Amino acid sequence: MKVLKFGGTSVGNPHAIEQVCDIIKNNNLQDRCAIIVSAVGNTTDMLVKCGQLAYHKNEKYRYFIEEIEIQHLNIIRALFPSQSNFISSIKKRLNFLEIFCDSIFHVMELSKRSLDRIMSLGELISSYLFYEKIKEYGFKTIWKDSQELIVTDERYGCAQVDIIKSYKKIQYFFSIESAPYAILPGFIASSPRKEVTTLGRGGSDYSAAIIAAALKAEVLEIWTDVSGIMTADPRIVLQAFPIENLFYEEAIELSNLGAKVIYPPTLHPVIEKQIPILVKNTFSPSEKGTRINNAPCFKHSVTGISVKKNMTMITLKGIGMINILNYLKRLFTVLSREKIQVLFFSTSEHSILLGIEESEVMQIKNSINNEFSQEIDKKYLFPVLVEQDLSIITVIGDKTKNMHRTSARMFITLSKNNIYIRDLAYNVSKKNMSAVIKNSDFKKALNVLHETFFEIPPKPINLFVAGIGKVGRKLLEHISIQKTYLIKELQIQVMGLCNSKTMYFEEQGIDVKNWKKNLESGNRMRLHRFIEKIHLMNMHNSIFIDATDSQDVARTYDKLFVKGIGVITCNKIACSSSYKDYKNLKKIARYFKVPFFLETNVGAGLPIISTLNDLLNSGDKIHLIEAVLSGSINFIFNHFKSGRTFSETVREAQKRGYTEPDPRIDLSGIDVMRKILILVRECGDSMELSQIRQKPFLPEECVKANNVESFYEKLSQYENYFGRLREEAKNKGKKLRFMAKYEKGNANVELKSIGPEHPFYQLEGDDNIILYKTQRYYEQPLIIKGAGAGAEVTASGILSDIIKASR
Ligand SMILES: NC(=O)C1=CN([C@@H]2O[C@H](COP(=O)(O)OP(=O)(O)OC[C@H]3O[C@@H](n4cnc5c(N)ncnc54)[C@H](OP(=O)(O)O)[C@@H]3O)[C@@H](O)[C@H]2O)C=CC1
Ligand SMILES: N[C@@H](CC=O)C(=O)O
């Protein structure tokens, strides 16, 4: 014998009901089968509403009755297009509902008993309707009213089942009835006086469990609209997956602490009889679902993670607590009197911390203060302290495994992600570990813990991109193109975008292919709002990408670090401003253990900074750095040939995306000074920009031009000067290279003419070259060479920083 229970969504519409019939048809049942059915969709809620409205003299109850009727008749018409001879029996029940509500309306009385009568109609109708459909499939089926089988006391609304009497009735019925399928309404039962009663929350599960236990069924199948009990709430953790096997105890823990698929107290009868429970998805029946029993199986060290939101912590404390006789007994007497469920408990010699539902706080606070009023007056204790807006996150450990490593990982993961932990506690069995955290952190906490305990790639990375200019745009393009490749390792999502005018966010991730349209539809850009929103979204694995040239944006990094958000930047301003600020940023990022990558600050996509760090971290010493670090200037001098003006060549470099947004930053030497300064600082030297010696080659008048256009005008007035520079070098068989050098604590940048003997002579296009002469690479210095400017290579450098940061 199998017992199958189908919940409200499984019979919520004609398609779902047909799906359920297919499940039964495909089940290949050799055995007999009891099928317990919930009310259609949200019928029970609507029935309750009818009763309450009628009681409050609100005629709108008629509207809800009509709604219920329409909903059911629509299902009937869709399922039974040609014949509907049983409609009259359903109409009879709905007529009864109307008459019953009319009387409530007139007498203005609604007892729990009456409400049970009203609520019972949902299951009575749905099970009957389902019975008629299943018969059409040619199955030999009977319909049986559960009121005749399950006996309860008279606690209407949540009646207590007389297990012995009910088991006898169920066993007797199934012994005399031979039809292989029996359809029964869930949730309802009857009192000894034959009045309808209902079984409270999870009532249909309870009906199914009682029938399964009475018949010693081989399995109880709970069919619902999710694919089993998940490792975490799938609405919050996209990577959550169904748990294949659970021990009864673990299922109880998971459900008590937030997983809503089953309501274990109602499953007590089957757990007692050790009957396996299978949770399956009606809409995806081929999926395995979750099997709950006590059979050994392979599992992760953690079974699942659950969260209880909107909790309140109440603390009773005082140095006199230890001297108060029976204080725990008194406290728990108050809690039990007030029917308060404690979901978190931790204690020390002079304090007790209790986690309860937010809604119960005022009532319990006053009661505890009253109970201990004398001790509070004598200052042995403080009045109850209340902390709100908290969540309890619990990692449920595999009951067969040791939890000490798991709890350490939980603590490290939360603190590494900058999640404030108010308190931590093991449960009694030492198999579950709970942390009290802020409500605002619960999504992030759930995601990072899920990642730590369950996830295999792809790892989710949430990006916020500031600056959608040449580089930013290319980056979005790379992300969209590489998505299929990256998906194996990373699931990169762009959650926020901005340029200097607008900003745009999407909690589910932005469609980067349509970034332009999205950004245009965004809100007016306010930098502090952009940063605030990133904080508010509070997403795990968040990375801020700075693809702007803005000083204001560069000044926000520390505000991101302290919230656990990493920064990847191609904007050189942050690391080339004062040494104090540079050092501070590095320190804060290290302290908060967040990624801070700036590879593209020097040499665009070339691995210049990472190579330098690798050398230094492995104990090498830098003797000399010599480099051509300006892709644009190199391009300009390589292309400034006779027949071409200097200003035309600069325009060409800008058009190709090699220059800074303002090309004077390149030609004045500042860009290269910033780059060499960053390398010097990475070497550990506390240099300032002003300490770099430079020989400018750009006439002062051009530097001081009011804007970029007038700068170009000024440049054209100096064509002869630039032509002379070129010819002088050419006549000596040399080439012009704008070089940077760092040696013995000094750094300088200057335009040099170099001959073919120099390793930098053969430097094509917009290439950069860097030479590291180190203790280990002394005779033959280490050289890195390649394209050193342009949106393409810079964006790919940022992408590789993103990949590094995700590790
Ligand atoms: N090009 C290259 O080869 C390399 C560039 N870099 C660096 O990359 C950065 C970007 O360069 P590039 O893409 O060429 O420059 P662009 O001028 O093309 O783009 C800059 C972007 O930043 C935005 N922006 C400017 N100020 C702000 C602000 N306060 N808030 C929000 N957004 C802002 C601009 O907005 P709007 O569109 O509204 O003006 C624009 O979208 C620069 O710092 C540059 O030094 C680094 C290595 C190589
Ligand atoms: N403007 C820069 C681009 C990279 O930083 C350059 O010309 O090298």
From TrEMBL:
Homoserine dehydrogenase catalytic domain boundaries: 607-803
Biological process annotations from GO: homoserine biosynthetic process; lysine biosynthetic process via diaminopimelate; methionine biosynthetic process; threonine biosynthetic process
Pathway: Amino-acid biosynthesis; L-methionine biosynthesis via de novo pathway; L-homoserine from L-aspartate: step 3/3; Amino-acid biosynthesis; L-threonine biosynthesis; L-threonine from L-aspartate: step 1/5; Amino-acid biosynthesis; L-threonine biosynthesis; L-threonine from L-aspartate: step 3/5; Amino-acid biosynthesis; L-lysine biosynthesis via DAP pathway; (S)-tetrahydrodipicolinate from L-aspartate: step 1/4
Residue ranges occupied by any Aspartate/homoserine dehydrogenase NAD-binding domain in the UniProt entry: 467-590
Cofactor(s) demanded: a metal cation
UniProt xrefs under CDD domains: AAK_AK-HSDH-like
UniProt keyword terms in alphabetical order: Amino-acid biosynthesis, ATP-binding, Kinase, Lysine biosynthesis, Metal-binding, Methionine biosynthesis, Multifunctional enzyme, NAD, NADP, Nucleotide-binding, Oxidoreductase, Sodium, Threonine biosynthesis, Transferase
Keyword presence, Transmembrane helix: no
Catalytic activity: L-homoserine + NADP(+) = L-aspartate 4-semialdehyde + NADPH + H(+); L-homoserine + NAD(+) = L-aspartate 4-semialdehyde + NADH + H(+); L-aspartate + ATP = 4-phospho-L-aspartate + ADP
Gene3D superfamilies: Acetylglutamate kinase-like, Aspartokinase, catalytic domain, Dihydrodipicolinate Reductase, domain 2, NAD(P)-binding Rossmann-like Domain, VC0802-like
Family as reported in the entry's similarity comment: In the N-terminal section; belongs to the aspartokinase family. In the C-terminal section; belongs to the homoserine dehydrogenase family.
Oligomer status and interactors: Homotetramer.
Function field: Bifunctional aspartate kinase and homoserine dehydrogenase that catalyzes the first and the third steps toward the synthesis of lysine, methionine and threonine from aspartate.
NCBIfam families, A to Z: asp_kinases, PRK09436.1
Listed name of the protein: Bifunctional aspartokinase/homoserine dehydrogenase
